[in-house]
Amino acid sequence: MTPSPARIGAGPAAVDSAANTPSSATRRGVLAGGVTAGLAGAASPLLWVPPAASAARPVGVHLMYGDDPRTSMTVSWSTPKSVRRPRLEIGPDRGLGLDVPLRSRSSRGVASVYHHGRVAGLKPGTRYRYRITHDGGPAQSGTFTTAPRTPKPFRFAAFGDMGVNAAASRNARLIQKMDPDLSFIVGDLCYADSAGGTGLGGGATQDFAEWDRWLAMIQGTAARSPWMTTVGNHEMEEGNGELGYDGYLARFATPRTGAKGAPTTYSFVYGNVGFIALDGNDASYEIDRNRNYLGATQDRWLERTLKQMRATPDLDFIVVGFHNCMYCTNLVHGSDGGNRDRWERLFDRYTVDLVVNGHNHCYERTHLMRDGAPVKEAPRGAVVDSRRGTTYLTAGGAGQAVYPTGGLPASYVTVEGGLRVPELTTYSAVVDHTHSIAFLDVTPRRNGVATMKLVALDGSGAVIDRVTLRRG
Ligand SMILES: [Fe+2]
Ligand SMILES: [Fe+2]
Questions:
Q1: Which of 132, 371, 440, 463 is least buried, going by the fewest C-beta atoms within 10 A?
Q2: In angstroms, what is the span from residue 328 Cα to ligand 2's centroid?
């Protein structure tokens, strides 16, 4: 089968119409999903300057699934400046054969240009080769594999709060070694803006070159298996678009399956797992910079998506990811009542299996939760029926300095207005204050039972937690 769409001899990168970013439109426009190409185009920074041939190497190569992981993929990379005739070729063998149309974007504070090639019409469960080039520059090659047509065993990594530092680099190598089929990242990616949406710092806390250092650091894993990212508070970069997301959206071409006007949200299905990426900033009581910019639009989309996933015969587990913690005892950020108020009812109704959060720089896993309370104990090593309750995971130990500030037996939840209200923390099953990454091995139904085995490893590869969620 010849994948489509094919375009032989792609010309210079198209000027981005910014159709995938709401940040240059008004907030009203975002709420209405009314981003127009004209508006966005007028406000977009430069895109295409005809340059001389450049020997610059393509860097920061990273993959992201398109709308359907079985048949689509987005390959992204950057060049240190504008280059002539950037090109992405893809094919099932060394012959490649498919020239993928590109969109290229600049971003505030750096000379780098970010290129994105979205390809659809691929064959499920198939390994593809890709090659990135531009006139006068060296080629960068890689491979990826599309999701299987029918569920098969697979592995995904889950984590957040990485940054650029020695621990993050060690974890990036650990992820590469563990070779997951995909990674699900819950925000606070590189900390180019260390103010984190608080409005403090007045721009003095920004270093946008950190994005390129981070993308270079993760390339070993992100160029071979997709990094499915969500936004954290540190992706709300002051002065970078109304929502602060321009920097993030210049570098990540997310699937177009999310809430209307919100490219920070999306869903996808891989094998027997439905993944939902939410914009946690929209619901946070703790950091309210972007609170309610989507509101009911995101919640209605979430409910529709959950309903649809639960009605899909081969889909066993639902995994939801967003940044702020729904249940975490760590005293630095505690739990966010805004996310609970908006989404806990839906997670309960549709028996979401696993919610992955970051924000607190530590590892923590809850017992099975329903209606705001633990309903089934799940100590380290347990095998539990996840139809009985949702597991909330804080996986914020991917690299940024850890928060060794436990809150057992009492922590707090931030309620509307930013008030921290004390609460008992009977929900907590396992707490660890070292750097770590969670890996989940999923198997489809066998004799009527599907399993999702979580193993959390510290940077050296030592096991800090283990639990098995089962269905059936
Ligand atoms: Fe963080
Ligand atoms: Fe955070």
A1: 371
A2: 13
Distance from residue 341's CA to the centre of ligand 1 (Å): 22
Residue 147, both tokens: 């999701």
Least distant ligand from the CA of 233: 2
What ligand is nearest to the CA atom of residue 190? 1
Q: How far is the CA of 362 from the centre of ligand 1 (A)?
A: 10
- Ligand minimally distant from the alpha carbon of residue 162: 1
Q: What is the CATH number of the domain that holds 61?
A: 2.60.40.380
Residue 5 domain flag: no
Do residues 238 and 323 both lie within one domain? yes
- Percentage of the chain beyond pLDDT 90 is 84
Residue 420 to residue 253: CA distance in whole angstroms? 36
For residue 280, the ligand closest to its alpha carbon is 2
The answer on pLDDT for 356 being more than 90 is yes
Per-residue pLDDT of 102-116, as tens digits, reads: 999 999 999 999 999
Give the confidence band of 56 by pLDDT, cuts at 50, 70, 90: confident
Distance 345 CA to ligand 2 centre (A): 23
Residues 207 and 286 in one domain: yes
Q: What is the mean pLDDT of residues 453-472?
A: 95
Give the N- to C-terminal CA distance of the chain in Å, as an integer. 37
Per-residue pLDDT band for 41 (boundaries 50, 70, 90) equals: very low
* CA–centroid distance, residue 2 to ligand 1 (Å): 43
Q: Identify whether 235 is part of a domain.
A: yes
In tens, the pLDDT along 386-413 reads 999 999 999 999 999 999 999 999 999 9
CA of residue 382 to ligand 1 center, whole Å: 29
Q: Are residues 321 and 445 in the same domain?
A: yes
Nearest ligand to residue 403 Cα: 1
In a domain, 100, yes or no: yes
Contact 443, 314 (CB under 8 A): no
Closest ligand relative to 289 C-alpha: 2
What local confidence, expressed as pLDDT, does residue 15 receive?
A: 27
Cβ-proximal residues to 206 (8 Å cutoff; 6+ apart), any chain? 109, 192, 193, 194, 195, 237, 238, 239
Q: How many domains does the chain have?
A: 2
Interatomic CA distance for residues 282 and 343, integer angstroms: 11
Distance 339 CA to ligand 2 centre (A): 14
Cα(359) to centroid of ligand 1, in Å? Answer: 4
pLDDT at 53: 54
pLDDT in tens, 372-392: 999 999 999 999 999 999 999
CA atoms within 13 A of residue 207's CA, in its CB half-sphere: 11
